[in-house]
# Entry
Amino acid sequence: MFFTADIPNVNPPRYKIEKTMGYELIGWEGGNDKQKASILLQAFSKSNVFSTVQFHEGLDTDTNIQIILESSPKFRWFLGETHEPVTWMQENDQGRYLLYIGNRVLSLRSFFVIPDVDRDDDFLVIRIRKPNKLTKEYRYSLESYQMFGWLSLVFMWYDDSKRWDIILTKIVHQFLAEAKDDF
# Structure
């Protein structure tokens, strides 16, 4: 897995707000997604910006944050089941669809010397909500590529899948720096 979006270069926040933060997770269904969500929540908790970080379900909290994973369509013919109709990509992005099909054919014909490449152009959306109104929304790209094949074994030393904790923690730090005045 290769992370291609910009990794923020932000220091941990140095301010503290004496408020409670309630969070709501939306779109984090998969196993890897749940692991990423726990990394995000851990980063919020360890930042020490809020007095408490707790799940928001009818509790009275000062600030409510929705942490949303906007997933890109996943097309996995060989490694799993698709979540979208097979014609979705063909109808919505024909150029990408042709690259996708061409990559699959070349991968199979070369016995995976040419790797099978899956692009995930997901977004992390964080919404700040005050009681009964949306205050602000922040979007962060989580674009990455996953490769399966013999050639990808050469690049295993550059695999970013073990760096998700650092990447997501830096995104949380960037969010806290950008949203400082919105709390």
The longest helix spans residues 31-46.
